[in-house]
Write a structure and sequence with these properties.
The protein is an alpha+beta fold. It has a domain of 125 residues. 21% of the residues lie in helices and 28% in strands. 12% of the residues are buried.
Amino acid sequence: MTPDRTLSRRAPRAAARPASRPGNRELFRQALLLVVLATVAAIAFPLRAAEPQPRRGERPPGTPQAVGALHTVRNIPEACTRLEGVFTGDASAPYRLQPVPVGGTCQARARWVEPAQARPAEAAGWVFEDRIRVPAAGCPAQEAVVEVWHKPVEQPLARDGQGQVRIYLQDAQKQAAAGKMQPLPEFTARMALAGKPCR
């Protein structure tokens, strides 16, 4: 007697599904998004480049200052100097600018020169650094315009790892005794009034 052979039927294997691919709609949406982004970039970058760029050192107008209010116009830490200004209310000299030495532990690496003595100009080696506009609070049509100039000096001294010139006290004393002091860079500022005075 032959054993009963029953054929066991196996469940059919599920057909392997292909990896899901994005449909045509999704591909079209992504392509359209890329085209839109590229178009926006092509329009925005030339417009940004066409914007007028501010001149070197040109600042937006500062806070309007009242008559008699002493204010700091700019700090010049290299020369241990602070520029202070004040609207005087005097028609003959409406604005006064004065350099104020900064005390404490400040060690000057440059010197301040009065504008009448310096006469800053590019032809004389001066470099324009900054223009600060100070509006008058009681007279919006008038503002003081302060220009800061810098006269660099070529330093033949060796520099450290950070690119800074290191001058030690003993070396400076020896140079002074020998009459071989290195010239220092110079800073100056000139002031002018712009606009019309108010009556």
